[in-house]
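Much of what follows relies on a compact textual record of a protein's fold. Here is one such record, which you should read through line by line:
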Amino acid sequence: EASHVQAENALDYVFGYTIANDVSDRHLQQKDGQFTRAKSFATFKPLGPVIRTGINPNNLSIQLTQNGKVKQASNTSDFVFTVEEIIQEVTKVMTLFPGDIILTGTPSGVDAMKPGDIIDIEIEGIGKLTNQVAEK
């Protein structure tokens, strides 16, 4: 049974915050009709560069550039749900353990990537994650 967390104290369970590039193979996603294989290749979830603590996750600017061109620019205050609400909902269906990671989603502006593209994701108070799209 899941270990349910109330929204008002959900952040008490968070060790810290980092950046993730949640890469998906859209062709496999459409072919398979679900996300498992399309999101599960070894290079599809770069994380980092650090884990930050002591920040408010609900008001941080986010920017993603692809080959230097801004594709996404937003703020976590624009999330449909707060981080606390996300944790509350996740723990209704599963127990979280130390080291578990929740990815919260992405602003609009997702675009196709090709091998060699440079992706920079910057989140205020955390830093910048840079990765190059690998060959399949």
